[in-house]
Amino acid sequence: MGDKNDILILTGEDGRELELEFLDTLIYNGKVYVALLPAGEEEKLEIIIMEMRKSEDGIGEFYSLGDEKELEAVFNEFKKKAENELRTSQNL
């Protein structure tokens, strides 16, 4: 990614909009997950992990993870991926 990450605007079931900064994508156990950060809240660093699925019309939809074990496993995979990318960039 470049200097500026993509900003996504997600609309919840209640109609509220939430601006999120896209951080990364990960495929884990055959599912696609995204790591997001609330836009403009750098001091909090609360990473949001969601599953991304395509609807029948081909549009990407984001779903919260309800299973704590799944959330923890995916978060750990994102951490491993970030650590590997950091090590690789330091070896260049």
The backbone outline, from C-alpha atoms, is globular
Overall pLDDT score: 87
Strand count: 5
Derived from helix and strand composition plus strand pairing, the structural class reads alpha+beta
Query: Which runs of at least 5 residues are low in confidence (pLDDT < 50)?
Result: none
List the helices and strands in order.
EEEEEH
Profile the largest sheet.
5 strands, antiparallel
How many alpha or pi helices?
1
- Report strand %: 35-45%
Q: Specify the oligomeric state.
A: single chain
Helical fraction: 25-40%
Strand order of the largest sheet: 1-2-3-4-5
The rounded Rg comes to 14 Å
Defining key terms:
92 residues; alpha+beta; 1 helix; 5 strands; 40% strand; globular
What do these coordinates show?
The chain has 92 residues and is of the alpha+beta class. The chain has one domain (7-90). The protein contains one helix and five strands, in the order E-E-E-E-E-H. The chain has one helix at residues 68-90; strands at residues 7-11, 17-28, 31-38, 48-54, 60-64. A five-stranded antiparallel sheet has the order 1-2-3-4-5, covered by helices on one side. Strand 2 (17-28) and strand 3 (31-38) form a beta hairpin. The chain is globular, with a radius of gyration of 14 Å.
